[in-house]
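Lab notebook, bench 4. Still working through the backlog of constructs that have no structural model yet. Next entry is a single chain of 262 residues. Request: give me the structure tokens for it.
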Amino acid sequence: MKYTTLFVPLAAFAGIVTAAAATNTTSDYPSDSADRHGKDTPSPSSPFDSVPPSSAPTPTSVPGPASRHMRRIPYEEGNQFQCGMLRVQAEDNAFSGYIAGMRDRDGRYIVTKDASRAAQVKLVESELLLEPRDQSMGYARIGATFGLLYEQPGDNNMEGNSFNYAYISGTDRTAVGSPASMGRSSFNDATSSRQRIESSIFYFGENKEVRAQWVNTNRAIKPVTFAVNPSFQLVISGNPGAYVSKFGGKAARIFCTPPPAR
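Model written out:
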């Protein structure tokens, strides 16, 4: 069985969500979701690296290096922190944007250059809860759905030497410290899949950076990092370098950012 991967040129970055908002569709499955047994061919190259500097989005400086030992900052309002928009920044400053309020046709959150289309969230007890205007199809939170392709350490597990990943998507709630479990997700709904999910996996680092972790099937907690694939869909992976090497894209960091003034 053959699958086709459609890449979105970086010059089209600013308009990707305009089209998604009108049709709620993007490309057919990229290579990281074509076949759960790994028969698909990885992306040969990433369009991120082939765009002339004049057509690339203006980089925004990342506030300081990522710390290996992230420090959680206290919640405001007793276990709640009003985050606002989620700014996505490539680790090499190749691009910046925001997590869009709209998902693609496969139920995955994508990145937009347009701040007016950005989702707005608050962090409550390790969950990213969507503001009412961004809640759709019964999902009130942003979580993660484990990917269709995987290698060692196996299904529903992350590790620092593995490309394993999970799609950033709308999900049901899962308990803090709980391994991935069966549950509803926007990705599962859209693709008729039965992938496992986790939602209580987010916390703050310094400079209001949103960090994430994954709970393996043996309950080991693994640090994970965000990445954006060539179709501007968001994932988390224990080794974003391995993920990018296999599927293309860029490792990324996410920061809470106040919404634009009205």
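Notes after review: The helical segments are 16-23, 186-191, 240-247. The mean pLDDT is 77. Flag for follow-up if needed.
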